[in-house]
Amino acid sequence: MKTNIILAWRNLWRNKRRTLIAISSITFSVLLASWMRSMQEGSYESMIDNVVKFYSGYLQVQDTAYWNERTLENSFEADPQIIQQISGVKNVSLVSNRLESFTLAANHLKSKPALVMGIEPEAENQITKLSAKITQGTFLKNGDDGVVLGEKLADFLNLGVGDTLVMLSQGYRGVSASGLFVIKGIVKHPNPEFNKRIIYIDIQKAREFYSAENRSTSLVIMTEKHDHISAMQNEIRKIIPAGNTVMNWQEMQPEIVQLIESDRGSGLVMLGILYMVIAFGMFSVVIMMVKERRREFGIVHAIGMQKEKLGIIVFFETLFIGFIGCVAGLAISIVFCLYFYHNPIPLTGEMATATEQYGMEPYMFFSMKPSLFYSQMIVVFFVSLVIAVFPIRNISRLNITKAIRG
């Protein structure tokens, strides 16, 4: 067996050009499949990040009636002991109070309905990293009296840092709510719809504004290990009182889940077609190798080498070509996709507009999940092994006379 392997390896480099063509075809196949899957999964991760990290969080504790009727009447008092117990659940990295409601945001000439998000600024910034997206002024600090506006909302109202925002709304249990707030900062929110309507305010000031002392509409729960969301959700259910419920991001955003599953299904169909193209391309390269060496096979068999041994050597040759091509393809695809992972491709025109309508940033993002790359390498390598049956079958049916004369 060792002799067969050595002969197969040496045979590869007798004709370097032929071998490099075969390896290159497999390398390109792995690269193309990895590129497609990385781009597809990267777009899903971007979509989920926009939903999870900039709004819903991975989990939320709410009043049982709040999700169907999002009013302050369905808010709840968040017990500090309950929050402490939730923080102690395995894999929970952060728990933050929110008080959400609506208001009429106005200046002296214009007004527009807006979403008011009362937050714990320092905790919220750990979730959303919004301080890095401030275009003017500064982000909120705990206890601040001012507000931070979405960039498009500020443009519509023609307000800037230091100006006064008027807010008119209805508070808890129908109490009238009105106030003047100094704008501390302008944020360019990644979600275009939020960018047009969002107002951030310290949660204590929001509670004062809405006359909702000690109340929250949700507890936002984050984790670094989102593979464990189901286990965390089950543990938190045991902690919270009967009047509350805990929802994960899939339950809060079912349309995103449906969109991803639908697109992933069509993507897998396209990947299947791509694998067929790859298989035919590799098959044509193997046919070329066999036809070129037909006379060589005939002579080697004529001088005494058995067809079985010749077939084994050619099989190892194909195995080496497949292995080298797949490893090279894996290395190149990781480097290639890593560059675009750190430098997303910007979208323009109608594609950018359509992407923004789904609440995503207008970029083509890439994913670096290891399984995306290893799976492509394994599939292409398996395809190359299946194709390796062809030269073995060809050798088994070899006619010495015809092969030597050819």
Strand content: 15-25%
**Number of strand elements:** 14
Across the major sheet, the strand order is: 3-4-9-6-8-7
Distance between the termini: 30 Å
Q: Would you list the SSEs in sequence order as H and E? A: HHEEHEEHEEHEEHEHEEHEHHHHEHEHHH
**Per the principal axes of the C-alpha atoms, what is the gross shape?**
elongated
Query: Which structural class is indicated by helix and strand composition?
Result: alpha+beta
Binned, the helix content reads 55-70%
Which sheet architecture does the biggest sheet show?
A: 6 strands, mixed, barrel
Oligomer: single chain
Count of discrete domains: 2
Task: Provide a count of the helices.
Answer: 16
Poorly predicted ranges = none
Mean pLDDT across the residues is 85
The gyration radius over C-alpha positions equals 31 Å
Which characteristics define this entry?
six-stranded mixed beta barrel, 56% helix, single chain, 406 residues, alpha+beta, 2 domains
What does the secondary structure layout of this molecule look like, with pairings?
Blueprint: H1 2-12, H2 16-56, E1 59-63, E2 76-77, H3 80-87, E3 92-106, E4 111-119, H4 121-128, E5 134-137, E6 147-150, H5 151-157, E7 164-170, E8 176-187, H6 192-197, E9 198-202, H7 203-210, E10 215-216, E11 218-223, H8 229-239, E12 244-248, H9 249-252, H10 254-292, H11 294-302, H12 307-342, E13 345-346, H13 349-357, E14 363-364, H14 370-387, H15 389-396, H16 400-405
Parallel strand pairs: 4-9, 6-8
Antiparallel strand pairs: 1-11, 1-12, 2-10, 3-4, 3-7, 3-11, 5-8, 6-9, 7-8, 13-14
Helix pairs in contact: 1-12, 2-10, 2-12, 2-14, 10-14, 12-14, 12-15
